[in-house]
Design brief:
Blueprint lengths: L1 H13 L36 H14 L3 H10 L8 H19 L13 E5 L2 E2 L13 E10 L4 E9 L10 H7 L3 H5 L4 H14 L8 E5 L3 H13 L10 E4 H9 L8 H7 L11 H17 L8 E4 L2 E4 L20
Parallel strand pairs: 1-5, 5-6
Antiparallel strand pairs: 1-3, 2-3, 3-4, 6-7, 7-8
Helix pairs in contact: 1-2, 2-4, 3-4
Subcellular location: Cytoplasm; Nucleus, Nucleolus
Keywords: Cytoplasm, Exonuclease, Hydrolase, Magnesium, Metal-binding, Nuclease, Nucleus, Phosphoprotein, RNA-binding, RNA-mediated gene silencing, rRNA processing
Cofactor: Mg(2+)
């Protein structure tokens, strides 16, 4: 009887319109598989006694009992993306029905993350050896940025420059093979302070932090807390204020799709979402583009990407989900350390 009622709720939602979006798991070896209806989101509506949340919970219960083939068929019927593992498809359907019902009740917000107008995806490449000594100083040798418009959910621009290392100017064979960056490329490049100045000009031309709200996004914590922090100290410049907080997409992905930390590597995230890596792995610009594809897919699935890490005393620190939304400040030219 309950199942018949919940299936009726799903059909009822389908009559409210079409769209794309939202909330569940994804990868091989999943560790979470709820068979119970998902609880309502505390941020969506203030009164949980409203019948809308009971209907959403019933719909979630029906979706939890669907097989992967049934989930794909339902996504196809609703003109949603049919790619991804079972829990990703569940998340997508749940978000679709939730949004449709909340729209119907005049209580929904917009699609995806519309607080930030733009998201800047950054994935540095740095000097390395096959077996890095514990005190090895990684120097940035590629500075890429991929710009996502969160309103159109598209990649709209990119920046890339190679960087000349100064402490260890000779690249190891391992580094060349891994990144595809040759000695000639870095020898002909500018030093980091010069490249960072051009990055700032590029960001300023986009009016980020002034006209538009934006945030940086990385694949993990190392890009900011390890590579950028170390590089700024080596170059004797202050760490840029606009990079003090960022979105760690691994953390966002794992929390949103409810997967183990081991399933949040770049290629695994792509695989779980039904996508393949495009380009050359460990090319900074290609990595950034693929990370951007994941971010866009997550936004379409209803994830509200938000800053979740910050630099504190040279170490990464989590930003609680209860913290207010905050965009990065306007970028400024790098300053010398006192």
């Amino acid at each position: 009887m309950m199942e018949e009622k919940s299936e009726h709720v799903v059909r009822k939602f389908e009559n409210t319109g079409s769209g794309t979006d939202d909330d569940d798991n994804g990868c091989a070896n999943k560790q979470h598989s709820s068979e119970e209806p998902d609880p309502p989101s505390p941020t969506a509506h203030g009164d949980f006694s409203d019948p809308v949340y009971k209907e959403i919970s019933l719909a979630n219960g029906t979706i939890n009992r669907m097989t992967r083939d049934e989930l794909r068929a339902k996504c196809a019927e609703l003109k949603l993306d049919t790619r991804g593992v079972k829990d990703v498809l569940r998340k997508r359907l749940k978000n679709y029905y939730k949004k449709q019902k909340l729209k119907q009740a005049a209580a929904s917000g917009g699609l995806g993350d519309t607080y930030y107008d733009y998201i800047c995806v950054v994935d540095f490449e740095a000097t390395c050896e096959e077996n890095n000594p514990q005190d090895f100083l990684h120097e940035i040798i590629e500075f890429p940025i991929v710009l996502i418009d969160t309103h159109t959910l598209e990649i709209v621009d990119s920046f890339q420059e190679y960087v000349k290392p100064e402490v260890n100017p000779q690249l190891s064979d391992f580094c060349v093979d891994l990144t595809g960056i040759t000695q000639k490329m870095v020898d002909e490049a500018d030093t980091f302070p010069c490249v960072l100045r051009r990055v700032v000009v590029w960001l300023q031309e986009k009016e980020l932090g002034t006209k538009y709200k934006y945030a940086l996004l990385t694949d993990g914590s190392w890009d900011m807390s390890k590579f950028l922090y170390t590089q700024c100290r080596l170059s004797q410049i202050r760490y840029p204020q606009f990079a003090r907080k960022w979105i760690n997409i691994r953390k966002s992905y794992g929390n949103y799709y409810k997967v183990a930390r081991s399933q949040t590597k770049l290629t695994c995230m792509l695989e779980n979402l039904g996508m393949q890596y495009e380009g050359r792995l460990h090319c900074g610009l290609d990595d950034s583009r693929n990370i951007a594809r994941i971010a866009i897919r997550m936004l379409k699935d209803g994830c509200q990407l938000r800053v979740n890490e910050r630099l504190h005393g040279g170490e990464p620190q989590s930003v609680p989900i209860t913290a207010p939304f905050e965009g990065a400040p306007p970028p400024q030219k790098p300053k010398s350390r006192d």
